[in-house]
Give the backbone structure.
Amino acid sequence: MPTKNTYIDLFAGCGGLSLGLNQSGWKGLFAIEKSPYAFATLKHNLIDNLNHFDWPDWLEKTQHDIDEVLKGKIKELKKLRGKVDLVAGGPPCQGFSTAGRREESDHRNELISSYIKFIRLVQPKIIFFENVKGFTQRFEKNRSKGIKYSEFVQKALRRSGKDFKGYEVYGELIDFSEFGIPQKRTRFILVGIRKDIFEKSHFIPSHCFDLL
């Protein structure tokens, strides 16, 4: 039997994205979600009932703040390099959403930097990132980033470093109503391929959207 592709779910909520990956034949390693109520739902459905995750011994099966994991589990996260096919998920959207107050000062917006730090530590083969349409729009004053947050994330992921090869990335707005979702729901989807893999395969991230 072929080995299943592996992934980590960040900002996992109650596990909707993980459920889809489970149904598509993927195997979860673990999920990070701060809300105890959302994580309780994920645990009941995906851990207790489906045994979907190969949860590591070094991470307790409970809700976690991603910044606490980044601070306390650096060595463990680095050891995952070469073992993770995908990191999926997107930081909270409330500060970006045009349906809400849309405040750049919303502290949850800073979780974008936490997401990037996690990617740089684990370095999965591919990235799947989602957020609201407002993520691609400038804030009126742009006090901190000076550009659209979608551009900030893509530039940060493309940038190589001492022990970080960077990613070939591509983002696009997708209308989920075209895929059977019973609501007019447009989301920003970003796909990234680690550059060393891209250089061998020459599979361009934008090709993922051609398959939709």
About this structure: The longest helix spans residues 36-49.
